[in-house]
Amino acid sequence: MRALPFIVTATLLSSVAPSVRAAPVTYQLDPTHTFVVLSRRNYGFSNPIVVAVIDKGTLIFDDKDPSKSSVQVTLPIAKLDTFVPQLNIEFQSAMFFDAGKFPTAVYKSKRVRSLGGGKYTIIGDLTAHGVTRPVVLQATLNKAGYNPVSRAQAIGFDATATLKRSDFGMNFNVPDVSDEITLKITTQADAAK
User: Fold this and answer.
1) Is the Cα torsion angle 74, 78, 81, 87 positive or negative in sign?
2) Domain-embedded: residue 109
3) Which of 118, 167, 120, 160 is nearest to 143 (CA)?
4) Partners of residue 135 on adjacent β-strands
5) CA gyration radius, the chain
6) Residue ranges making up the domain that contains 55
7) pLDDT score for 55
8) Burial track 101-123 (b if 16+ CB lie within 10 A, e otherwise)
9) Half-sphere exposure of 131 (CA within 13 A, CB side)
10) Number of structural domains, the chain?
11) What does the pLDDT read at residue 20?
């Protein structure tokens, strides 16, 4: 007779467990492990990079139903780094990002689609330089699991995209300096507490 409550409890828990696992998990991006690398062609000679740091971001991920997933990130223009002090000043100026008027760039997803095998297409809008345009990210899940450093559930993705800076009103020196910009993103996030 004493075993009956245990059996009923175990049966109830097993019946609700799948729905608990399927619920979306909200993660906060870790700015010390999240970077965007922008690459451009420079007069055809080289492909210099700019590194951008994500200031803050929220990632909601549902591994059972990726369509319930989303991402929103804010990138402070002042933290763009070309590794050339004079070029950093130019990138902040009205020639490029005009950071005084438009201090941040923001990406908000609209739709996430699973391609299988840990691959995802993220369709969203990027707002930069006061202009909003669609940008599609091709993302790969690196890992989801316990992070022994933060002692929290964590997740990490890499993603790529291409965009045209002229779409955002940044036409300076096109086409000598390429209009097309390649983005490579790596991100790590811990479950929100």
Assistant:
1) positive
2) yes
3) 118
4) 124
5) 21
6) 22-191
7) 86
8) ebebbbbebeebeeeeeeebebe
9) 15
10) 1
11) 35
Q: What is the DSSP letter of 93?
A: S
- Give per-residue pLDDT as tens, 9-63: 333 333 333 333 447 999 999 999 999 999 999 999 999 999 999 989 999 999 9
pLDDT score recorded for residue 49: 96
For residue 59, what are its two tokens? 């990632």
Structure tokens at 44: 């055809």
Q: Are 183 and 161 in contact (CB under 8 A)?
A: yes
**What is the per-residue pLDDT for 142?**
98
Cα separation, 66 vs 111, whole angstroms: 9
The residue whose two tokens read 């790590």 is 188
60 and 97 in contact (C-beta within 8 Å)?
no
Is 50 a domain residue? yes
The whole-angstrom separation of Cα 6 and Cα 14 is: 12
As given in the structure block, the two tokens for residue 41 are 């062609």
Domain with 40 in it: what CATH number?
2.40.128.110
Rounded to whole angstroms, the Cα distance separating 92 from 90 reads: 5
Residue type, 110: K
